[in-house]
Design brief:
Elements: E1 15-17, E2 28-31, H1 36-41, H2 45-51, E3 53-62, E4 67-72, H3 75-80, E5 84-88, H4 89-98, E6 105-107, E7 111-116, E8 121-125, E9 130-133, H5 145-156, E10 177-178, E11 195-201, E12 207-213, E13 217-220
Parallel strand pairs: 1-6, 3-11
Antiparallel strand pairs: 2-5, 3-4, 3-5, 7-8, 8-9, 10-13, 11-12, 12-13
Residues 16-19, 29-30, 109-111, 139-141, 145, 174, 221 line the site of flavin-adenine dinucleotide.
Length: 221
């Protein structure tokens, strides 16, 4: 978003990213219709549209194929003029990345702690480098090192709410992937323009999902 600010409102920025992006992983990602105006605003809507399928609904099934029900996503069309979308997560990653000039992203930079004072904020990375800025946007995921630093600061000053004391628990392990292109004659659902997000409630409390993607692929998780 910072990259798409008007010229007279440009803010100099730098992204510190832990990974090296050699091979973005993932399965399908479903995107609510409300995100589409943002995609338009940052100029990636046409690319996303080409790489995605509109999503009509989530369907829930038992492992033996029995229908359990469905969640209708067509309401997005009435409320937002769009359906929700489904696309391959690595494709979305690639589109977003292609709009950020390479010199704005430093990869292999794992932030281990953050300090701030009256002048600004400093990010301390695992390779002993330190980056200074006026503002830090912490977008480093569920186990955010930025948030942990902030919480430590708040806790030291007695300002951290009690319900934020406990750490996030790891209670799920997910296996994800995308198939190679499949033969649509063998899998006729691939020919449909609209995608169903199928969630199967498998045995042993292990649900999984199968999603039809562009390029005759299926996303599995
Ligand atoms: C299995 C699964 C399926 C999901 N499906 C959907 C879906 O269909 N639709 C949907 O909308 N949401 C879905 N979500 C949720 C969605 O993925 C998250 O809400 C979203 O990715 C959060 O974005 P984020 O930018 O906060 O963090 P992330 O996407 O986790 O990105 C964090 C980034 O920060 C980097 N990073 C992490 N730590 C550091 C550090 N210390 N220093 C520097 N960089 C760091 C990471 O490498 C990563 O690039 C799903 C989540 C899971 C686990």
């Amino acid at each position: 978003m910072l990259e798409h600010l008007p010229e007279d409102k440009k803010v100099d920025y730098l992204i510190l990213e832990r990974s090296v992006f050699s091979n973005p992983l993932g399965s399908a990602i479903s995107l609510h219709a409300s995100i589409i105006p943002l995609f338009k605003q940052i100029g990636i809507w046409e690319e996303v549209q080409k790489a995605s399928k509109p999503m009509s609904h989530f369907s829930l099934k038992c492992e033996d194929g029995t229908d359990l029900g469905s969640v209708d996503f067509a309401y997005g069309q009435a409320d937002y003029s769009y359906y929700g979308l489904v696309m391959a997560r690595p494709d979305l990653h690639e589109i977003l990345l292609s709009h950020v000039p390479p010199e704005k992203i430093l990869t292999g930079k794992r932030i281990v702690s953050v300090t701030q004072d009256d002048i600004g904020v400093s990010c301390h990375c695992s390779d002993s480098t330190i980056y200074h800025g006026d503002i830090l946007v912490g977008a480093d995921g569920a186990y955010s090192a930025v948030r942990q630093s902030l919480y430590k600061d708040l806790k030291d000053h007695g300002n951290l709410p009690r319900h934020d004391f406990s750490c996030i628990k790891l209670d799920q392990v997910v296996v994800v992937g995308i198939t190679e292109p499949l033969n649509p004659n063998e899998y006729p659902m691939l020919k449909e323009d609209v995608c169903q997000f199928r969630i199967v409630l498998g045995g042993n409390d292990r649900p999984y999902s199968v999603t039809k993607l562009r390029g005759n692929r299926e996303g599995l998780s």
